[in-house]
Amino acid sequence: MKGRTLLVLRHGKSDWTTGHEDYHRPLVDRGRLGSRKMGAWIKRQKLVPDVVLSSPAERARATTVAACKAMGLPLKTVRWDERMYAAPVEDLLAALAACPKSARRVMVVGHNPGLEDLIHYLAEGRVEMPADGKVLPTSALAQLEMVEEWQDLERGCATLISVTRPGQVPDELAAEAAEEVEYGPVPDYFFTQSAVLPYRRVGDKLEIMVIASRRGTRWVIPKGVKEPELSLRDSASKEALEEGGIRGRIDDEPLGHYDYSKWGGVCQVAVFPMAVSESIPEDEWEESHRERRWLDPKEARRLLDEKALRKLVEKLEKKLDKR
Predict the structure, then answer these.
(1) Closest among 270, 278, 279, 317 to 298, alpha carbons compared
(2) Alpha-carbon torsion, ordered 216, 221, 226, 232, to 10 deg
(3) Where is the catalytic site (predicted)?
(4) DSSP H helical segments within 252-306, as ranges?
């Protein structure tokens, strides 16, 4: 019977000084670097997982994104599972049990003490305690091997192969991985993208919704790569729900397009107007770490970076005035 590999990655070093509640606590620079280093190490060791299970808490989410980018692993491989947040062993095992039987290698990204408890449970009696008393410090990665199905993991069924700490991985490895991600080859379909331009009327006033970028450094609209199996419009609807936490009526045809440079090429984005009818609650929104704002069109144009996108806001305003 072929063996299975479980990679257990603890989130990177987080920032306790921001005043954010625990769930929304971000990574510090050291935490982001550690996450990239571990992703690069996984790729170097040829341990890239078939499935990633991640807590959706901000520090775990950012760790997962950074590690996946360093591995060259699409984020669609990730399952954001609420059970992984501050989870006891029972919940972690339940999340693993939901993995497909075809997955030979799975990575979980989450929090202590649950992750250390999971390692002790699976490799019972065969875990040496380091001098500092931490089996899995921040950004550390444990590799376990077992033959059991993901649905049948029992106490003591695994062997702990290694625990790798970020300090054991050269910083240069992360830099090399970052360069490959930024300039290396990506699938052609990545350059075809779609977005929604969300709007609503409050009384007789038009409002446009913008959202914070992943790093919170600028204002954007819900946008993403068009998945091969989806139409541009359906892909835009998917991004609206995931990135914006919104539902509504999307026009059949795009309002227009804009281009931007990335991955050594040019991405073309089709922008669909969306009359928003529902904003889902924060606890149901997949990317609730973002901020979303409703603004008058003039303020939205001022905040958006892309010149062509600002023109589309103006075009939408004129179009709606004619209705």
Answers:
(1) 317
(2) 170
(3) 11 (tele-phosphohistidine intermediate), 82 (proton donor/acceptor)
(4) 297-303
59 belongs to an annotated ligand binding site: yes
Q: At what angle do helices 89-97 and 114-122 cross, to 10 degrees?
A: 70
Is 90 annotated as ligand-binding?
Answer: no
CATH of 4-182 among 3.40.50.300, 3.40.50.1240, 3.40.50.720, 3.20.20.330:
3.40.50.1240
CB atoms within 10 A of CB 112: 16
Residues 82 and 23: their CA atoms lie apart, in Å, by: 11
Residue 113 CB-density burial (10 A; 0-12 exposed, 13-18 middle, 19+ buried) = middle
Strand blocks (E) in 203-304: 205-212, 219-220, 223-225, 246-250, 256-262, 265-279, 292-295
Q: Which residue pairs, CB below 8 angstroms and at least 24 apart, start in 171-176?
A: 171/33, 171/37, 173/37, 173/40, 173/41, 173/44, 174/33, 174/36, 174/37, 174/39, 174/40, 174/70, 176/40
Spell out a b/e string for 276-294, using b for 16 or more CB atoms within 10 Å of the CB, else e: beebeeeeebebbbbebeb
**Separation of first and last alpha carbons in the chain:** 65
Q: What pLDDT, on a 0 to 100 scale, did the predictor assign at position 305?
A: 84
Question: How do the domains of the chain map onto residue ranges?
Answer: 4-182, 188-321
pLDDT in tens, 21-44: 888 888 888 888 899 999 999 999
Q: Is 85 annotated as a binding residue?
A: yes
Cα radius of gyration rounded to whole Å, the chain: 22
Is 3.30.360.10 the CATH number for 188-321? no
- Return the structure tokens found at 185: 């080859």
Q: What share of the chain is helix, strand, coil (3-state, %, to 5)?
A: 35, 30, 35
Positions marked catalytic? 11, 82
Does pLDDT of 160 surpass 90? yes
